[in-house]
């Protein structure tokens, strides 16, 4: 009997011992990794926004400091320890305007506004299902999927562009555009919005949007639509004010493509037959990459390239030249430092675990790499300020 | 007045871990000759973990999933609340590898392979048995050989005292989360050989409960933030009605059963920054009819016939105007038939041949959806032998799956194809050895190779489905023992210790992987590999204390090293995840159930511990999940008033008011209570 009691007590104490493990959860302190040598630059550093898998609330902010070569991972919670549930769920865009840093947090229905230098929280702009942000003349323009609902048997909901006063962070106006608007660009007194129709077309290609909405900046009214292709995503203006638009295709028979809109005719006048998942414009060089699913090989086909925006020609098929591209699972974000021409590419890995950031020299050789948060995606360069 | 024969009854089969279960089982055998499931004279080679009778009744559990947490080797993924999804994972092989059987026939879900055990309330459940590998009784349908592990739920069967022809039971439960849960059971003896039962239940709960998140500073340990909110949109409104006929035949028995479940619930969703409330809704309507017949045809030859028709409807609505509007319905049907033939070659050797056929369909109003149909034939050949100290069972299962699709809601030009036919032959071997004639020690071992089919969602779901998927395989190796000791003249009357060591491999694991074009999209692929090394320990003690007080204690402990060996393209990322503990599987977990019975009073204390985990296989601090442990208390009293037998019980759950999460961003209830009043006549 004594033996058994001992056995029982031993087991109970094992439970008690195990039970002693729970502690209060601490604010995540972040961590610093020296990845590069110190260098001077007209930029102080850059922010990298990690999207985080939907529902995980793991959108995190990383920062690279050029002056020290230190990569600071997951800085938001450490800098803003009193914000409940940290930065939020699915970071979709990030940008700096004036002395403020704006992070568009899609599934948290907000744009987080921080001090550009310190990433200290200033406030937030409440915008449901917000997507991308651009600025002009003291106002931020933010696309949102969640416009007014039309009461009819076929439920439809157009998106809109919100106009936000960057001084007060108040939404001052809204302009309805197409279904599920994604990126936007502001040039020549107009806002150009790439409508995707992503919610509409998943089961039927014909339901995707295929237009760019053109909004007059002065009146903040939609002027017209430019027909481009199904399921548009990115849009940006080159030096001359002409626009480069990407379509995602329908993920089935229609491939992703790059389209050119002439600013004067306001029409698509050229198509570059190259798939584009994401791009970054530096000077006249459009750095692009694409990931396409191949049913035949049952794998992703990943390509990289540079398009010259003057000639519309693909001038390079590989801006990573040292073979590192072979180990990148899913390229997800891209940025080029306008001064050093260093190329930054992120790898989103398997979406649910941490990804990677690679820095390549302008010759395409890997300079350094670092593990990031989950789904590293969006960059914002922080300029030097006196 | 119910009497508990816990310490006087002899074992019927010897595999019961719970003294209390014996009352039920002996009762069943006394009055229902031939109606017990174990009609064969064989003892199971490897007995189940089983909860039944009073032990199950007094366990603070609302649904089957709550009770299953007390089994060794099992992890329950609980999204919180009465209406929240609860899925079970046995020995870390994944929820799709577990078969759930309701009154002997498997519950199917060809669409996503998950059985939400939160939907099965404990109201009419009399026993829950869990088998690793398979139920080692060879006289069973081929489907029973077809999972990596199985849970058998047995609903209450009518049992009558010699003079009675009608039983009535009414139960009313209420408590936290604005729970209202009445149920009624009527059992009627129709003829000498046929009994009838009908049971129905209504569940209504707002699902509202306060939850709390807080963070402290790393350095000073001072409070950084502390937020308490109320869980919203976790409401449920459900009705269940089931009815059965149970008959005896000359050297046989039969039963037929109809089951209907209807529910509407909120899907509470993840709590993320700036979103403290979600709006998604789900409706379920499950109906099935099933029947079973078992008969001895000639000496040594027994036949068992099973059949089932199931019709399941599910509607998912996302009315949240900030998100994509979704109003999808999914309609599944299943037809199933099985014939098992057992032939006793000699007193010591039995052979069984089972053939099953199953037909599944799925339709939906979702755009781009194909309508798949699956034809599954299963053939199982099994043998069992009792060779003195050695008991042996071996089986081989052939599975033949053919699929067809119709274009459904796809648009012209969508290139959709049906999955190619699958042919799989998979073996299992079970051994048990009793080395000493006196000591009640059994050493046991098994090997099983089985697979799970890709689900309809894996294969055909709009955009992410992949018709080229192959089955996902598991290999299980298990070695263990059970030692039982009965003592006379001491307070400790009986104790038992059992333990199993196992190694499992999951290969060809179906995982969602990112898919072009660089946007957030997924594709199902056979890419994963997981290896699990584990130990389960279960111990039971039965004490007879002075004053006729009985004390029963059961403790379980599980250790699992469940590693993700999925290869990565990126060597740095592979370093992060390769060999990492897979999501939500703790290294250490355990449970304790203790109950004291004094006359008509019963006090129950139960404890669950789930150790530290990570929410993904990169085991880094950012992905760390705290351990959690809950203590539950319940007290009950039985009393009789005239012909009426009453039971009144109170439950207090999460007594220490721990704020915990089982799944990231799904907060669990704090301390909560329940009151139960039942009357029988």
UniProtKB/TrEMBL annotation, chain A:
Going by the UniProt record, its keywords in alphabetical order are: Signal
Matching entries from Gene3D superfamilies are given as: YVTN repeat-like/Quinoprotein amine dehydrogenase
Q: Is the Signal keyword given for this protein?
A: yes
Q: Name one Pfam family in it.
A: DUF5074
What name is this protein filed under? YncE family protein
Give the SUPFAM superfamilies listed for this entry. Answer: YVTN repeat-like/Quinoprotein amine dehydrogenase
Could you list the residue ranges forming a coiled coil in this record?
none
Q: Which PROSITE patterns match?
A: PROKAR_LIPOPROTEIN
Residues in the signal sequence: 1-22
